[in-house]
Structure formats: C-alpha cells, structure tokens
Design brief:
This protein is mostly helical. It has four helices and no strands. α1 packs across α4. The longest helix is centred in the last third of the chain and has 32 residues.
C-alpha cells in the first residue's frame, strides 16, 4: 500500500510542476516585450499570461492528464525494454495530449476552425510531453535520492 501512496505523491507533484512549467513556457513564448507592442493596444503581461494559463491548464492536467497518465503508464509497464518503453510512452502521451487539446477546443468553442485545431493540438502535445518528461525526471530523482517514502 505504501508503494501506491508514493506513486500518488509522485503523480500529484508531476501534475503540479507540469502545470507550472507549461504556463511558464507558454508565457515566455506569448509575451510581447514593451518595445514590440503597438501603441494603444493592450497586451497581457508575463504574470497575467502565467495566471491565465494556470487557470486553464491546471484543471486539464488534473481532470484529463492524471487519469490518462495512469492508463498509459499501466500499458507501458507491459514493455520490458526501456528504450522501447520510452518511445511508446512518447507516442502515447503525444497522441493523448493532442486529443485532449482538440476535445478542449470543441467543448469550449462555438466555432472550430482548422488553425485553432492545429494550435490546440500543439498545446496538448507540448503539455503532455512536459508531463511525460517531468515524470521521468522525478522518477530518476526518486530512484537516486529516495525522495518519496516507499
């Protein structure tokens, strides 16, 4: 039972850190510095973008990403070779993230346009890969330093 508690703690930490990292990455790429801004046009500041992205991505990581990661990881445990497991995980997480991005767009948009589908697919793809690689990093750190109680 303790192993399950450790796994849940790792997953929750990974979800929280993934939401923060994704929001930071999105804010870095979307922020427009003041010298590039058009006059008389409002632009979100870095912190405003960050908060806005956390508000939307945090619940998506918890409500969609967490259950999907549990399912994908249960499939990946069936693969013995670590490099095959990594590439299978990369494909499965990428696909799941892309689908979640498209479903998010469909649920929260009245009109769906091709460019929006591509954009939200990329957001989902990046968000899923942030989670996937952070989960690998946290597992490596836990194996090396025993951060989480067994």
């Amino acid at each position: 039972m303790q192993h399950g508690k450790s796994d849940r703690m790792k997953r929750l930490l990974t979800v929280a850190l993934s939401a923060i990292l994704f929001a930071t990455l999105y804010s870095c790429f979307s922020y427009v510095p003041s010298y590039q801004q058009n006059p008389n046009t409002y632009y979100f500041g870095f912190f405003e973008l960050f908060v806005f992205v956390i508000i939307y991505s945090g619940p998506m990581y918890f409500l969609a990403g967490l259950p999907l990661s549990i399912y994908i990881d249960s499939l990946l445990k069936l693969i013995e070779k670590s490099w095959v497991r990594y590439f299978a995980g990369l494909v499965l997480y990428s696909y799941a993230g892309t689908m979640v991005g498209i479903i998010f767009l469909i649920l929260f948009s009245e009109n769906v346009y091709r460019l929006e589908v591509i954009t939200f697919s990329i957001f989902g793809f990046v968000a899923a890969n942030v989670y996937f690689h952070l989960s690998i990093l946290i597992s490596i750190i836990d194996r090396k330093y025993s951060v989480f109680p067994k």
